[in-house]
Amino acid sequence: MIGDDLVTHVARFGAALRARQLRVGLSDEADAVRALTLVDLSDRGEVRLALRTALKIRRRDWELFDELFASFWSGRPPTARAQQLSFLRALSGPRGAPLRLGSAKVGEVSIDAPEGEGELPGYSSEVLLRKKPFDQCTESDLAAMQPLVERLALRLATKRSRRLVPSRGRGITDLRRSLRRAVATGGELLILAHRRRAVELPRLVVLCDTSGSMDAHTRFLLAFILALKRTAQHTQVFAFNTSLTHLTPWLAPGKIGLTLKRLAAEVPDWSGGTRIGESLNDFVARYLDEMVDAKTAVLILSDGLDRGDPTQIAGAMRALRKKARTVIWLNPLLGDPRYEPKARGMAAALPFVNHFAAAHNLESLERLLPLLAV
Hints:
With 374 residues, the chain is of the alpha/beta class. It is built from 15 helices and 11 strands.
């Protein structure tokens, strides 16, 4: 019924509900994904009730929701009753303006549930945004990307680890705990104990290059990092150029665009020069022991262009690699197939990098998630 990617399925279902004039927001979708991690996904009734509750469906819309749920999650076309309810629901909207379901007027809308991504409202624009290089994006693109970035970060927060933990609901039968319980009932297995895969948020340390050579990419990469910070609370964020700045105390809930403007105005030497080696060594000296351990993923976002002593970069990277769970270097230039990491700074860092990957668009950032997961 539901595949491995809960976020994708919930996002599509939310779009289908909005197309029927039900008020479902991004925060509701996030709550729904979290709710699905707490129920038995093989139990259709549990999934339906969890979604109806988390998406905050009003009582008067329950019948329509149940009809759409049955059609969407089974892949069957909606019944005539669902079409009728959807039409009546649309007619009950505000007067004085033409009502639209998706991109069509009420009288023109197709009620068929989305069966493929190409039929989802706004899918084409989402695909273009995911593939569009950051250095070609505008301010309006950044605003349009914000929901996609938050959804991307949410996928990290709902990814299950391999570790099994006790579960009150259904899951894998835990025979050992079940037998212990049976002692209290004279050896009869009246209640079975269960385990399920835990959801574990990773510990992250992010070091983002805000020098002039990274200017075209910095705002979009930081938007992604801010979304990660909201989702994975054990995240420390730093900016570096000619010096290192601890950004975490500066970050507060609110619109990403306003936060980025504040950082650009207040972080010293933003969009200026770069001293990667000195900045990384500063982090190692001041924060390594406090913030990095065997469970921490260190994420460095930089093009590796540095005119300083490459031995400084090598020394700092060696210290990071020795202590962190994994060291990931994201380089926007790697999105160009002609790029070769021959710059002295980048070449000095690579021997101590576990994963070297591109970071030139949203699609490349999606590939990062499995590397961050615990």
